[in-house]
Amino acid sequence: CASTCAIERTTWLISLAFISLTLFLRIIVSSPYSSITVQVTLRDMALAVFLLAALGVSCSSAELLELSYTYNNDAPTSPKLTQFTHKIIKKGLNKFGIWVELNEFCTSEHAGTHLDAPVHFAEHGWAVEAIPTKRLWRVPAVVIDVSRQIKFSGQMNYEVKVKDLEDWEAAHGVIPDGCLVIIRTGWGAKSKNIRDYSGLDQHNKNNFPGSPEAKTSEISHAKLAKIENVTDYSG
pTM surpassing 0.90? Predict the structure, then answer.
């Protein structure tokens, strides 16, 4: 968002400068229609200034949040899948005195922080390359915090309920159409320990929060573009 805002600000500044230059030149060059030309140009300038100011306000109020975890050998992955490994092949000067960094890594496609494709759990769903960018870029987003419910219920397999969505709407208003809904579970605190993160029990079965009821509810079908789960693998 920050880089996009910077580009948009630059674009509007260039537009404003162009309009100002046009006005200046039209004032200098006398014409029978100069008064009409100046009037129209001033209106255009006023519009440009308004849009520039609005853009500055909207961008200055934006806050960037880093939601991902470092992708390294500690990246959380299902114990049943290939673990992430990283190997440094070259890090230093080559024979020509040029700095080179070269690495190799091996991983399951479902390791660490990542975007899961609908096809993962839907036979005819989109693969990653088929997901329209507009569905993921600069769309409304809300955070529904269920970490307290999980903590005080003691349920590792806590399921996000329709009531959790309804309670959020009662407190904050209707969830916008096409919105990204991020479910905060607090499970990230366990990311350093794969056994805790996976909730492995004595039978080596995974246990962790999920959202089957919420994802199949009328609210999610009508409103949501995506519900981000704590994890995407099943045990």
Answer: no
